[in-house]
From TrEMBL:
Cited InterPro entries: FAD-linked_oxidoreductase-like (IPR029041)
Source species, domain of life: Bacteria
Taxonomic classification: Bacteria, Pseudomonadati, Pseudomonadota, Alphaproteobacteria, Rhodobacterales
Residue numbers spanned by region Disordered: 1-20
Protein name in UniProt: Methylenetetrahydrofolate reductase
Gene Ontology MF annotations: oxidoreductase activity
Alphabetical keyword list: Oxidoreductase
Originating organism: Pseudoruegeria aquimaris
Length: 314
């Protein structure tokens, strides 16, 4: 893959060097998530993100597909590979799914997608899981080159109400088999969490069980502590929420922005010591704002559009 360079340097020069060479290496090829309403507030993404940065577009219930496609078209025109969400539970039927795929391809040249169940209690129609979307075969027929599916390092109570991970693991085994027969490159994109040790244990367990899909680990970007706690509770973040709760008890830190420094440093050090570790990329949720997150990533050495690592032919 050819090396992509910035079209335009960030407006704000880095205030300091990267946290460490390990973190700088770990951040290469990071991705970031936006919504149509947050993207609309950014005048020009080329002032914030390196060219080639993969940008996910979150599809929240109630967002018209026209707004999603318009955002994808705008980002693609500015030089970014776009990965829109396809939440199964808000897609009425196979005809609707085919229409969405055709719109994204025809208007924005999209050839990658994140498939997930979606945070809706009751399905709007025929689909309730990402596996059903894959089974339609529509993404393969459309020639999608990359398909991501959800990963849950801390489990998922919607899928496993008893607190186990039995159903989640069964779904991952199914997705692993699908990946082995698919022409698309596949990976797991995870929910954000705040504690490295359980994430490392989870990733190692998947590999030990023969699930070797590359993992793009979800990371909450810098934000006020209160903001992170609100989103973490709303998104069902598991035991690692205690990292935020512990910090909240220190009133001297309550108003300071929380940064993913410790979490990423521990993961990066583990990756440096174990190059075959299957977490391959960082995916940012810019909960404190896109500009804040993008600036932090660049200050710590993060670039995107870099040549793929051997383990993940992105």
């Amino acid at each position: 893959m050819a090396l992509l360079q910035f079209k335009k340097k960030p407006d704000t020069p880095p205030a300091h060097g990267p946290l460490s060479p390990e973190v700088e290496a770990f951040l290469q090829g990071y991705s970031i998530e936006v919504m149509p309403r947050t993207a609309a507030k950014i005048e020009d993404f080329r002032a914030l993100l390196p060219e080639g940065t993969r940008v996910y577009i979150a599809h929240i219930e109630g967002t018209p597909i026209e707004e999603m496609v318009a955002t994808a078209k705008r980002l693609a025109a500015e030089g970014y590979p776009v990965m829109p969400h396809f939440p199964a539970r808000i897609i009425k039927d196979e005809a609707t799914l085919a229409d969405w795929i055709a719109r994204y391809q025809g208007e924005a040249g999209v050839d990658q997608a994140l498939l997930l169940a979606g945070g809706v209690a009751e399905p709007h129609g025929a689909f309730h899981s990402s596996m059903q979307l894959l089974e339609t075969g529509l993404f393969g027929k459309a020639g999608f080159k990359r398909l991501h599916v959800a990963g849950h390092p801390e489990g998922n109570r919607d899928i496993d109400p008893d607190g186990s991970d039995a159903n989640v693991m069964d779904a991952l085994r199914w997705k692993q088999k699908f990946a082995e027969s698919s022409d698309a490159q596949m990976a797991l994109a995870t929910q954000f969490c705040f504690e490295a040790a359980p994430v490392i244990a989870w990733a190692d367990r998947l590999k030990a069980e023969g699930i070797d899909l590359p993992i793009h680990i979800g990371v909450a970007g810098p934000a006020k502590l209160q903001t992170l706690i609100k989103f973490a509770v709303a998104c069902g973040v598991g035991p690692s929420l205690k990292v935020l709760q512990k910090r909240a008890k220190d009133v001297t830190k309550l108003l300071l922005p929380f940064e993913p420094t410790e979490f990423l440093s521990e993961l990066a050090a583990h990756k440096a010591a174990h190059p075959d570790f299957n977490i391959e990329r960082v995916h940012f949720f810019p909960l404190g704002g896109i500009k804040t997150n993008a600036t932090w990533a660049i200050e710590n050495g993060g670039t995107a559009g870099t040549p793929a690592r051997p383990a993940d032919p992105a």
